[in-house]
Specification:
This protein is α/β, with parallel strands linked by helices. The chain contains 13 helices and 19 strands. The chain is elongated. InterPro entries: CoaB-like_sf, CoaBC, DNA/pantothenate-metab_flavo_C, Flavin_trans-like, Flavoprotein.
């Protein structure tokens, strides 16, 4: 006997990307989801009601006053395990954030307590508008999963962030994040992120190109899976979910101090921060003049990961390695052993690859060698993959 279909709602906003939601509907059906489409009235200018009914095999309505006897905004909300809204326009995001209920879709959202995934698609100027960004942060603070739009060519002829993401990315996000089981409930997860800086004088510093995107993705992925999450983040303005306990630091010493305070109580440590290997032997209290720069003497920073690992009991530690050339697999295995970590994620950063990017490619290794190859996935997807491997490692350790 086949497993029963899982009921979900596909909400469709009034943007040109509405036609791409037809493929999304098919791919969700391929994953054995039973899908009811709830388009906004304006979206029917792009894809008509007959198309949605033909593809879904189900009745399609857009207004609360359609099929009133069925009380569809309540019955659909109760029946659906989750809601995917794709594409979501700036207007639709604003209406949901404001709690408005002026069509069937926004009524269903208000009546539902199920997980919601919102997939924005709009012109970059609209996406980066402060009002839209504030609305997105409001939705995320309420536990709604909001994807970042993709970057590329747009209908307007412009290029930028605002494209409808690839269907495979949306389905992956929906299954691995929005519908994620709470398999980390009761666990404490500690994540480091960003790049440390070592002061030369009050203006200049020694640093690196890490943005913190991967670390924040890990923290939010762990949160979505039920963990109690702490994030130690260095020199990054990236926002993080309000439910994450956040510590902003700058230097290696500051990060090390916070790690020592938090590590022993944690179950998993994801060491995604790029930690400076060295610092100036002397730091000037005044801004140095050009003529003062004849040389900068350096001293090695403490190896904070190796030091922390030496104190572990049952914690699972995931390290990160960024290499540019040579036998990078051997280099990663050597680092894994030297740092005392259980797993390591290796990627090549030749020519500045990875830093600041929304996607990543690389290898996941344990002491036996490569256990997973990662090819051009979102950093959100990698976060869940690393968590999966960390949980598997913990289970093996007993």
């Amino acid at each position: 006997m086949s497993a029963p279909h899982r009921e979900i709602i596909l909400g469709v906003g009034g943007g040109i990307a509405a036609y791409k939601a037809c493929d999304l509907l098919r791919r969700l059906q391929d994953r054995s989801f039973a899908v009811t489409v709830v388009p906004t009235p304006s979206s029917l200018n792009f894809v008509g009601k007959a198309t949605w009914e033909a593809l879904s095999g189900r009745q399609v309505t857009t207004e609360v006053f359609d099929a009133v006897d069925q009380v569809r905004h309540v019955s659909l909300a109760r029946k659906a395990e989750a809601i995917v809204i794709a594409p979501a326009t700036a207007d639709l995001i604003a209406r949901i954030a404001a709690g408005r209920a002026d069509d069937l879709l926004t009524n269903v959202v208000l009546a539902s307590s199920s997980p919601i995934l919102i997939v924005p698609a709009m012109h970059p100027a609209m996406w980066f508008n402060k009002a839209t960004q504030a609305n997105v942060e409001t939705l995320r603070s309420r536990g709604i999963d909001v994807m970042e739009p993709a970057e590329g060519a747009l209908t307007s002829g412009d290029v930028g962030r605002g494209r409808f993401p690839e269907t495979s990315e949306i389905v992956s996000r929906f299954i691995t994040s929005t519908l994620r089981d709470q398999d980390l409930a009761g666990m404490k997860v500690l994540v480091t992120a960003g790049g440390t800086r070592e002061a030369i004088d009050p203006v200049r510093f020694i640093g690196n190109r890490s943005t913190g995107i991967q670390g924040v993705a890990l923290a939010e992925a762990a949160l979505s899976r039920g963990a109690d999450v702490s994030l130690i983040i260095a020199n990054s303005e990236l926002a993080s979910h309000p439910a994450i306990t956040r510590f902003d630091v700058s230097s290696v010493d500051e990060m090390f101090s916070q790690l020592k305070s938090s590590f022993l109580e944690t179950n998993f440590l994801f060491m995604a921060a790029a930690v400076s290997d060295a610092r100036p032997t002397l730091t000037s209290e005044r801004k140095l003049k050009k003529e003062d720069f004849s040389r900068i003497d350096l001293v090695q920073n403490p190896d904070i990961l190796a030091s922390i690992s030496s104190t572990k009991s049952q914690q699972v530690i995931v390290a990160f390695a960024a290499e540019t050339d040579g036998d990078i697999i051997s280099q990663a295995l050597s680092k894994l052993a030297n740092k005392g970590a259980d797993l390591i994620y290796l990627n090549s950063v030749a020519n500045g690859a990875i830093f600041g990017s929304a996607t990543t490619s690389g290898f996941i290794l344990d002491s036996s060698g490569v256990i997973d190859t990662v090819t051009e996935v979102s950093k959100d997807s990698l976060a869940h993959l690393l968590i999966n491997h960390a949980i598997s490692t913990r289970n093996k350790l007993g």
